[in-house]
Amino acid sequence: MSASPSASGAPPAALARSLKNRHIQMIALGGAIGTGRSAGRLLRLVGPGVVPVLLMAAWRSTLILRFLGEMSTQEPVAAP
User: Where are the domains of the chain?
Assistant: First the structure.
């Protein structure tokens, strides 16, 4: 997929795949922490029985964000 020229007629700058594995891992970790923080109220309301569910949700969001990071660096596309 090629990038289209900008409105000024100048060719777009080349896109670089500059995200390293550690960057993608930190993005995924941030998503997992965000999921845990938003689900913290649930832990107080329901009790310790919800911990396995929260761990599964954190793991799932970590995987999804990691996969999204991989896809965004595999085929970078210029924004319109």
Answer: 21-74
